[in-house]
Protein 1
Amino acid sequence: MPSPIRTERRDNVLVIVSDDPPVNALGQTVREGLAKGIEEALGDDSVEAVVIRCDGRTFFAGADITEFGKPPEGPSLPETLDTMEASDKPVVAAIHGTALGGGCEVALGCHYRVAVPSAKLGLPEVKLGLIPGAAGTQRLPRIVGAQAALPMVAVGNPIPASKAKSIGLIDEIVGEGSLEADAIAFAKSKIGQPVPRSSEGNANQDGVRNPDIFDEFRAKNGRKMRGFDAPNAAIEAVKAAGSMSYAEGVKKERELFTTLMSSTQSAAMRHYFFAERAANKIDDVPADTALIPVKKVGLIGAGTMGGGIAMNFLSAGIPVTMLEMKRDALDRGTGTMRKNYENTAERGRMTSEQVEGAMGILTPTLEYGDLADCDLVIEAVYENMDVKKEVFGKLDEVVKDGAILASNTSYLDIDEIAAATGRPGYVVGLHFFSPANIMKLLEVVRGEKTRGDVLATVMKLSKKIGKVAAVSGVCPGFIGNRMLSKRQEQANQLIMEGANYWDVDDVLLDFDFPMGPFQMGDLAGIDIGWHRDPSKVTTIREALCAAGRFGQKAGKGYYDYDEARQRTPSDEVKSIIADFATKEGTPQRNISKDEIRERLLYPMVDEGAKILDEGMAQRASDIDVVWINGYGWPLYTGGPMFWADTIGLDNVVAGLDKHDLSVSDYLRKKAEAGKRFTA
Ligand code: T1G
């Protein structure tokens, strides 16, 4: 097997080139080739400078994540980089694409770094529950300082070449089309000069002069770091870069890295990395399926969902024709979209030109006929089957052949909707989550007759509009809401049996969900759908509404709220629930938080098992992708199915049995066989 690394001579410069698609990951063969290339360069006196670059779409994009968890194989990247850095011959990293993780560390080990304007550099290891393991946390602060290094290492977002230049991470921005030539010229210009070694840099002293920066960083980023181990380790490593020698700091980094590498959090986050990518693949739709071009999108309904959905396409530069039945509804909808964009611009996350650009490709209309030439039409009208069927019947008449007709329904039967048209093959569900312009999850609901090219097209389109898509079969609630209903059922049952409703919320908050069900009820409004008859009380919600406890907007719901909307458990609610339970003949008892957690989460796992058994999800990791992106399941546990594997399916089954909760055959058989849901 030829090495993915080759060397090419350009006069007195040796160019080391990696050609290992898709992303030149630093797997064993690449590391071996790189080490050999460096050995060749350093051992040949006629070579006076070195350039390292990559073919394909990107400079090295990091270690090969598929190797993690396996016995490490040489050569060690840190040692290779130390050998390279120790040379007196100038070594230049020529960067394009995304120099990430180990790739960025290779660049840091070089004496110089040049990049094309479109390049990005970053240390995203924390997104895998890790920190850099090849001296990145020690070299980076010595070049750019602790303050600039902290967000790169502890948050992990990449920075553009322009920012990298401004903080001194790269030495020069070169031409998009002349990277190699410019890098060689740059290398030649450094021959004969003392080489700068990042390991000897001292820009990191800002972390020593002002040790408060680390606590300030933690305070600023606390919320998004909550529950994750890696960011704190990253901060400790950057701190070490200022307070220790390079050798001691590298040792400290290695200790922190090794601990994280063997952690469940990192295994969970590496699971998610591949799960998100796998979810975009449909097993029985070939990857080379011809796509339907989508140059114009139609949106029916300018309400909260319709407007939010439309914004996804407008922001991606795809024109949208938005249809409403009445002018005032249409104007209200487009007004809300503009306001949302302007709020984003005020926060500096969009320019006013981008706002005008997005709104400039929006065409509001009251005429169905204006949808005729759309390649994709999405309806986001009232959740009623008759209304949906009427809309799809009209679309079938008006819209050109070959266009995709999608419903944003959150639970209605896509097959029944498709049957209202003469083109069921072109009907698909696109279930966005509110707020649709923010939430990343898109459940693609595959009807019995939905065509492969329609599915392939919407999966590709989901990436273009910044969504994470997973395919669901047609069943009530699809994947996410179907599992959520099981959790909600248990939450209501638990408080009937005497569990404190605030304990139910707190168990989920302690698990690092963003919110519990009763807090959510208060936020949304308990009186949504209430019949307004206080004498008719058949549920706890109706009992609260009868008592005027409509939720946050009324200053009281399940909780009492102060002016700052801080919540306090209410004795009145506790007794309303107890009275209702007594009336219903349900005895009450104290219920522990452990029982609450098991009864909230284990039935969700069992429902996920049924979803798999029925083929409503392609794979267990798709269910994890749905819950992490649509419902705030904490990423560092990997999602419900990976989490169940870490608990042990036998323990999940034992817990369900203990609480007299149903266990599907599929789950019980997997548990008895000692199997897992996820790899
Ligand atoms: N290892 C293995 N496979 C990888 C990979 C990696 N690092 N990065 C991408 N792939 C695969 C991916 O699974 C997919 O495969 C294909 O490449 C295209 O990826 C030593 C320890 C580079 C920005 O975290 O962020 O270095 O599905 O669909 O949208 O201290 O991939 O086609 O079979 O994502 O254009 C640090 C992870 C590792 C970067 C490209 N590096 N990758 O995005 O394509 S830890 C990372 C990405 C480390 C050091 C530490 C993105 C991308 P398939 P893709 P993309």
Protein 2
Amino acid sequence: MNNRRKIAAGNWKMHKTLLEGQGLAHEIRTMAETELMNNAEIIIFPPFIHLVTLKKQLEGSPIQIGAQNMNQHEQGAYTGEISAAMLSSIGMNYVLIGHSERRQYYNETNDSCASKINVALAKGLQVVYCIGETLEERNDTKHFTVIENQLEALKGLSSSEMKSVVLAYEPVWAIGTGVTASAEQANEMHQHIRNVVSTLFNNEVAEGVSILYGGSVKPDNAKGLFGMSDIDGALIGGAALSSRDFIDIAKSF
Ligand code: PEP
């Protein structure tokens, strides 16, 4: 057993009105407080406009909260955007950076992710940095190289800054598709990620960083994934919209 933090993180994406979100957060809080006996950390990533309300609602609870995205600039004329300082000012614990949907639909690159990571850490946010290959890249056996390039976004961070970074390996072909990477396939990539982090930093950083798996995680496959040597938790999409499924996943450590 290692000392890495065990994390169940729920990405709500563009789901839930405010009232629905409050209901879901209430259920998650109640179940976490009454049922969760392990030391798993629970993080939710609701839509931006719910963050202030849900932060207040979850005060005093074990649930942490973060944003699904942020802008890489500190401030300025970027209509419609949200800065790291704004997220810090409303007490956010975390921000998700580089989710594959942001890379796919909003042209996010490893370079823009690197800028975001730096600004987020400077403003005191913890980062969940998402990486993962497409099916085509895997079929072309480019998946290890793709991940190495994505991890370049961490270059230049200090070992102490890396304590505020969590990695999420999310093969794009497994997100929202119902197809999960096998526990062995996922663990193989997690080990590769740890080796790359060791090369970029050192062995201590590599052994300390929590690496989550994401891609159709459900209560019935969570235990198998969490039982693997290098899988420290999950970033959960669809199943995080059900309090029952989300907490059952968190109970699977
Ligand atoms: C995600 O969007 O990060 C995700 C893993 O989604 P799902 O669990 O629905 O595959």
